[in-house]
Structure formats: C-alpha cells, structure tokens
C-alpha cells in the first residue's frame, strides 16, 4: 500500500519532537495554487502549535485552517469543502492538543460572564488566572463557542485521563461531521480521508485518535 501524505507528516512529527528542524521558512518562489501534498489541516489557534513546524510542512504543501480548539464548525467545513472541490486536497488532518483552553469553560459559563453574571465572572477568573472583564451586554453572535464537553478545569491543566478523553470526544465529533457531510465524499475516485490527533504540547508528539469511538460520556 502506498504511503499517504499523512503518514509522511507523522514521520516528520517524530523527527520534530526529536529536535529536527524540517520546515524551511524562506520564501520558496512561485508555486501553483493547489497544495502539493493534497492535504488540509484543521488545528487549534494555540500559540504553542506551529503547524508547519510540527508536521514538517513546506510552503505550498497544505492548507492550514485554524480556530479556537481546531473545531469542525460551519466555517471550517466551508473551508474544507472549498479546499477539496476547488483545490484538490484529499487528506484531512484534525489536530487538538493537550492543555487546551477549550477545556476551561462551558459555552453557557462564558456567555453569562460576558453578559455580566458575577458568579460566572468569578469562576472564569479562577479558571484563567486573570481578571475577567464583562461587557454587560447580550450578543447574537457567535451562536456557540464550542467549548469541549465535560467538567471544566483550570486553564493549562496538566494532561490526565479525564481531559484526554474530552479531547478525543471532540476529535471524533469533528471527524464524524466531516465524514457524514453530504458534500465531502468518502467513496469513489474523489474520496477524502480524515484522521484525527491530539498533539502533546509538552513533548511535541502527535497521538492518533481512534475512530469510530465514544463522543460523549455515554459513548
């Protein structure tokens, strides 16, 4: 079986975690618009993740889409559909990571804090270690913050079995959203593949998340 681009990038990640520098930061000159590895990566916006470095990607090889949590939102799906159908990417990679800020709150808690609920403000301040300044107003957007399901924990909490499970739940939900989307084919000559990972910000290594599998506490 031919080695996939994702497998090559995983090998690069092992070298990165071992201290190798694979990404070349210099401008490469003129390149085609289509990503040469036919890969699209959806990753968290966390400042500790340099996606090109940790995957050993070069400029022009992949689309890199980022948001808070690396969540498969409607806008992320918009980008992935365009990436596939117009720019010929075939392999999608989802990257969540340890110590993620999306583990430190719930959607309702953050909304209440922003609107001025004192108890919520206090909880958010305790979780983040900074003064939380409310806005004292309601807003219709964003409709959701997509905090990870489960019991919130302090910001930047050390990895453990409980928060690892919460990360894996969300990776699988993202994979499911892609694999079951009407406009992202999983069979035939135009099929895409999806693989999901949790990146350890302490070691630099990616760990693959099995799919299918549990997406909530009830499975």
Automatic annotation (TrEMBL):
Molecular functions (GO terms): carbonate dehydratase activity; zinc ion binding
InterPro entries: Carbonic_anhydrase (IPR001765), Carbonic_anhydrase_sf (IPR036874)
Keywords for the protein's UniProt record, in alphabetical order: Metal-binding, Zinc
Keyword Metal-binding found: yes
Top-level taxon of the source organism: Bacteria
Keyword field contains Metal-binding: yes
Cofactor: Zn(2+)
Sequence positions that bind Zn(2+): 44, 46, 97, 100
Cofactor binding, per record: Binds 1 zinc ion per subunit.
One Pfam family this sequence matches: Pro_CA
PANTHER family: CARBON DISULFIDE HYDROLASE, CARBONIC ANHYDRASE
Record-stated family: Belongs to the beta-class carbonic anhydrase family.
Name of protein: Carbonic anhydrase
Source organism of this protein record: Ramlibacter tataouinensis
């Amino acid at each position: 079986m031919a080695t996939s681009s994702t497998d090559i990038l995983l090998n690069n990640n092992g070298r990165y975690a071992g201290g190798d520098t694979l990404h070349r930061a210099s401008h490469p000159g003129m390149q085609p618009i289509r990503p040469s590895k036919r890969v699209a990566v959806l990753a968290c916006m966390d400042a500790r993740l340099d996606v090109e470095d940790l995957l050993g990607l070069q400029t022009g090889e992949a689309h890199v889409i980022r948001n808070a949590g690396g969540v498969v939102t409607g806008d992320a799906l918009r980008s992935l559909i365009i990436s596939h159908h117009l720019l010929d990417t075939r392999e999608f990679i989802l990257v969540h990571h340890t110590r993620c800020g999306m583990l430190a709150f719930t959607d309702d808690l953050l909304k209440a804090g922003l609107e001025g609920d004192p108890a919520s403000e206090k909880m958010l301040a305790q979780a983040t270690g900074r003064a939380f300044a409310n806005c004292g107003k309601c807003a219709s957007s964003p409709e959701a913050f997509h905090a990870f399901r489960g019991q919130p924990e302090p910001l930047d909490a050390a990895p453990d079995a409980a928060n690892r499970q919460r990360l894996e739940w969300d990776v699988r939900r993202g994979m499911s959203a892609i694999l079951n989307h009407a406009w992202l084919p999983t069979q035939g000559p135009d099929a895409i593949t999806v693989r999901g990972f949790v990146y350890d910000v302490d070691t630099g290594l990616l760990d693959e998340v099995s799919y299918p599998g549990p997406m909530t506490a009830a499975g």
